[in-house]
Amino acid sequence: MSASPLVAVVVTLAKSHWRRIDEVAASLEAAGLTVARRLTTLGQITGSAHPERLADLQRVTGVARVERSGEYRVL
Questions:
Q1: Residue 5, Cβ neighbours under 10 Å: how many?
Q2: CA 75 → CA 69, 70, 71, 72, distances in Å?
Q3: In a domain, 30, yes or no
Q4: Residue 24 contacts residue 62 (beta carbons within 8 Å)
Q5: Per-residue pLDDT tens over the stretch 5-50
Q6: Contacts of 9 by beta carbon, 8 Å cutoff, 6+ apart
Q7: Domain residues for 49?
């Protein structure tokens, strides 16, 4: 795999796949995501991946959106 650093990712599932979150998580892992948490009530999966794999993650059945996770600070 590439030497690029991993990025934190939040994957939002299509509402129709919330009950199949474990299946979607397994497919995401096969596509290159290291799963950190399954947020069942939000229909989201967090983890990390190489930036060049984000398009592969987006193509997984049941995925609505893949976003890089950002840091938020209160000023």
A1: 8
A2: 19, 16, 13, 10
A3: yes
A4: yes
A5: 999 999 999 999 999 999 999 999 999 999 999 999 999 999 999 9
A6: 33, 46, 47, 48, 49, 54, 57, 66, 67, 68, 69
A7: 7-68
CA 25 from chain center: how many Å?
A: 8
- Whole-prediction pTM value? 0.88
62: CATH: 3.30.70.80
Q: How many domains does the chain have?
A: 1
Cβ-based neighbours of 26, under 8 Å, separated by 6 or more: none
Q: Output phi, psi for 18, to 5 deg.
A: -60, -40
